[in-house]
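[Meeting: bench + compute handoff]

Bench side (C.D.) handed over the final construct sequence. Compute side (W.E.) agreed to return the predicted structure before the next meeting so the bench team could plan truncations. Sequence as handed over:
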Amino acid sequence: MNSSTNTFTAFIGIDWADTKHDVCLQASNNDKREFAVIPHQVDHIEQWARAVHERFGGTIAIALELTKGPIVYALQKYDFFVLFPINPSTLAKYRETFKPSRAKNDPTDAELALDLIMRHPERFKPLKPQSVAMRTLAAMVEQRRALTDDKTRFTNRLGDTLKQYYPQALEWFDHRDTILFCDFVIRWPTQMHAKKARKSVLEAFFKAHNLRSATLIATRIKAIKASKPLTQDVAVITSHRLLAQVLVEQIRITLQAIDRFDQEIAALAPTLPDYKLFSNLPGAGQALAPRLLAAFGEQRERYATAGELQMYSGIAPVLERSGQKSWVHWRLRCPKFVRQTFVEWAAQTVNKSFWAGAFYQQQRGKGSSHQAALRALAFKWIRILFRCWKNRTPYDESRYLNALKKRSSPLLALLGPENTEPKLAKA
């Protein structure tokens, strides 16, 4: 047995599911393996955990395919368990080694997880939870992003619905994911309703929604009064009007939910020690600064180099070689939200950082697509932020431009003296 496994009194592999969990157990001083099934119920999990500890005592290693989820949360409360997450693809490849047919069986997967952690313990890191505040922030920013996706989905459906019977509403407003637009569609759900509204009522409505431009209000009202119906088919209008009103209600609720998350995140994020490292980054803002903070986390020992973070986040591409051929492809196994965070933030820096904008244009000039250029920029940003994060030093644009000057970076030629001199003078 490997010396790194001697600290554990027993090893357990778990294959999780919604209603039950298959378990394979082996004592550290015994080659015999035992199988069991635990119902996914709090009382049963509690009873099983206590029984295992009473039987073996000490610290027990558990291998499973998750880093978060109900079974992980249930087991983390026991200080005698050490959880070792195993990448699902790693387990799948290990299974194929012995079963080329790819036949899957839950008890077998539990045993394979156990086998991996016992035979190769040095390849797996124990799950070490971050502070309560950091874990709360990480969960909230990801949930907020999911709500934003919901809003986009509802908005797109609403746009498609209005096109069927009331396309003018889409022409009168630039943004459809606003309370102004939602209130307008609810109050005047068809073109006929809007056209019949009195001018004074429409003016009062727009002013009540903080629209102060008299020119814009007049232009919008003129367009409403001059509009003509797309269709007069009652069946089309009635059914789509109902759907539009339902979708508007969903958008309104989602907007309110996002606002609640924004308030909670804005209150929590500044309390974390590293928040200032990210709050003043170009393009970060109230939405992306907390996400960047959560992406890096607070465990500086987790990444030894920037490359490790680049690979973990999925920003670093994968290089494959076979014979005389080699190719680069998208990294498939990675935390998608973390990758999304870095790419979305990199896009915001193009117009807010001198060198980032030049680097993006350089990549585009080489023939890279928009997304490929943003990923390359995110790759470069991670290297910079990693050093700031490790040293707890805020990012300084002028300092980085001076570093580029010392290295005679070709980016400075793209920037031009009119963009670099003011910044360099501040250094």
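W.E. noted at the follow-up: The two ends are 57 Å apart (CA to CA). C.D. will use this when planning the next construct.
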